[in-house]
Amino acid sequence: MMPCQSRSSIAALAVLIILQMVMLTALYAGVPPHPPVATPLFGIAPFLGASMGTAAAAIILGTSTSRAGAALSLLATVMALVSFGPQKYLDAQFGLIWPAVICGQIASLVVVVNVVSGLRSGSLLAAREGQPS
């Protein structure tokens, strides 16, 4: 049986994957509002692909049962916040994108809380050492 903490992290990461997949689809289809093709540092489509891949890898490794899964969960969250972070409140299109921004922030918060909770409870340390949590 999967712990509740792990299930909520998996659900939150799935939300981030779906939100980013919709953004990528809107970008390719040219349906407004869609993300820009590029930012000064990188292309958005490759970044969204990397972000979704990171979230999927975190789910596969176990978001709260391994250190690697926890680290990838946090990385996926940080990557998602590029698209859904608090800076989006200042975006001129916020009125059109607010549902995705709010949903992405809630999902990100769930992941961070679960990873921190797993670290505090020692379940990630026990999982790493092969001990029951």
Uncertain segments are none
Number of DSSP strand runs:
0
Question: What's the total helix number?
Answer: 5
Overall shape: it is elongated
What is the share of helical residues?
A: over 70%
Mean pLDDT: 88
Which structural category do the helix and sheet elements fall into? mainly alpha
| Straight-line N-to-C gap | 13 Å
Main sheet specs: none
Oligomer, anyone?
single chain
H/E element order? HHHHH
Amount of beta strand: under 5%
Radius of gyration: 16 Å
Structure description:
This protein has 133 residues and is an all-alpha fold. 72% of the residues lie in helices and 0% in strands. The chain has five helices and no strands. The chain has helices at residues 4-29, 44-61, 67-84, 94-121, 123-128. Helix 1 (4-29) runs antiparallel to helix 2 (44-61) and helix 1 (4-29) packs antiparallel against helix 4. It is elongated and about 45 Å long. The protein starts with a helix and ends in a 5-residue tail after the last helix.
What's the short version?
This protein is an all-alpha fold.
